[in-house]
Amino acid sequence: MKIAAEDQIKKKIKQAQDAHKAADERQSHDKKRTSGKERPVFQPALPQNHKPAAPGEYGRPVDVPKEYQQLSEELFQRNHFNQWVSDRISLQRTLPDPRPEMCKSMTYPVDLPSTSVVIVFYNEAWSTLMRTVHSVLDRSPPDLLHEVILVDDSSDELHQPLEEYVRQLDKVRLHRNSQREGLIRARLRGLEQTSAPIVTFLDAHCEVTIGWLEPLLNRIHQDRTTVVCPEIDSIDLNNFAYKYGPSGVLRGTFNWDLSFKWSIAPTSERLRRTSATDPMRSPTMAGGLFAIDREYFLELGTYDRGLEIWGAENMELSFKVWQCGGKLEIIPCSHVGHVFREVQPYDTSVSLHSIANKNYQRVAEVWMDDYKKFFYQRHPYLTDQSFGDISENLKLRQRLKCRSFRWYLQNVFTDVILPNETAIATGKVRNPISNMCLDTFGRTSNTFLGLSPCNIQRDTMLFAYTSRKEISWNDACLDASFIMPGFKIQMAECHRIGGNQKWLHQKKDVIKHVHSGLCIDRGTDLNPVILPCNGSLTQVWTFDYYTVN
Ligand code: LR7
Ligand code: MN
């Protein structure tokens, strides 16, 4: 998750928390609306041999003793989470109940449709994978869980005992891909083998919590064109603590490079919802954790099969669902934990970065109409890259009579901030004499701007110089609020009023801070600074692309 404007988010979370508490109290006085045949939420039994003091129980963090630190660090490199810790924790550990109070007394129709759960995995650690499976088996009402389909996307290690282990688990089946398909087509392989009316997808390092399933299925039962996501909590990648915040605060949006982003729901959405248990409409989904009516998914053409390995299928499905008449929601009464990794551990022949970018490009081309120009502004070097054949996708969009991207922005992602219509220059910002380039390192909120060698390929090095005379990276702008020579430049949320974020620049020339008249200098370490303009080559900068010369 982006750490942008963290303080602001925390403040807003607090406000929303208070509002929800008040709503909860109001509602609990209301009469509960139950229609004859209703079921309470399924109460899982404690596992046999449950040891309350064992490591990780109740979602507690697990520390690594000194003597195992080195081993645990080695294992960390394999999965990019602390496998040593995961291996210490029971596959059936207990968890806290992260739901809003009101969810606990909810009841659901007895005749909810059942679901198949599909979990795809590639080189996942055994303990995290199996903890995902056991949490599903233990915490789903037996009559609503039809089956669990595991799809091994041709992992390097076979987890040999997996077949045997799975055989003794009721309802669980294993399919092994003979070659690596990537998570998108692997999910479709899983889908082919499901037979329940609803399909629920999970990543292979999740833990579901009490009551997670009923509200998801119920919502689809009410309206089959609703695609639903649980609230996603965090399983700490270092100590496997189960962490959660308030529900119903964040929803999914995107950056213009099409990466997923959590955003505070706008006031309109908060007002539309009258209870803490009400579903929240979400412009996008994170991707890995959702339930969908099986037939409806097929009607939507499932995923674009041209998407490789990892990335963009979440945007594709989000745009498709909204634009083609469906809805996407986050259900506050359903909570699932996920191990958020900081990097993807996959070895691929070409960089994962370029694979994902091609995926994003396909999605932009099919769904975003003219707005794809904003995507290309963030990825100027993709303009002349091929993205394969998308004619089938375009036909599908026509056949389903899907609405425009403009409609989606006006009706769904209503709080979107469009980048400035005119970017004067885009791409990396290079200081030719040193061949160092500006780099945000993904940090956007009151942190220093950095520098990296220009030969590195990273989205965090792609800026736009706009007609507003801002130099921006997503919603963050170069900012010089301490205007003393030698001060480092900061990244701060773009405030759109010029001032300390206004810069003058021409091709192969200085970048001059309008307010102070100082120039960006590459400085002497890895942070550019502002200095009096002195004609030095350390103050010359050039963007990759200029729209006007
Ligand atoms: O080649 C592969 N084959 C696979 O089967 C690569 C991956 N996989 C499996 C992998 O083992 C895992 O179970 O696919 C699953 C997802 O891969 P992750 O865990 O590396 O993805 P992620 O959690 O980093 O990324 C999010 O975005 C992805 C974009 O393609 C997918 O949609 C992920 O499912 C999605 N994860 C979530 O939504 C969890 C919440 C994260 C947030 C925000
Ligand atoms: Mn994941």
Automatic annotation (TrEMBL):
Q: Where is the protein situated, by its record's location annotation?
A: Golgi apparatus membrane
Per the record, the pathway is:
Protein modification; protein glycosylation
- Where is there biased composition of kind Basic and acidic residues? 1-40
A Pfam family matched in the record: Glycos_transf_2
MF annotations from Gene Ontology: carbohydrate binding; metal ion binding; polypeptide N-acetylgalactosaminyltransferase activity
Report the cofactors: Mn(2+)
Every copy of the Ricin B lectin domain together lies at: 427-544
Q: What is its EC number?
A: 2.4.1.-
GO cellular component terms? Golgi apparatus; Golgi membrane
Membrane topology is: Single-pass type II membrane protein
Q: Which residues form a coiled coil?
A: none
* PROSITE patterns associated with the record: RICIN_B_LECTIN
Q: Which UniProt keywords apply?
A: Disulfide bond, Glycoprotein, Glycosyltransferase, Golgi apparatus, Lectin, Manganese, Membrane, Metal-binding, Signal-anchor, Transferase, Transmembrane, Transmembrane helix
- Tell me which Gene Ontology terms the entry assigns under biological process: protein O-linked glycosylation
Protein name, UniProt field:
Polypeptide N-acetylgalactosaminyltransferase
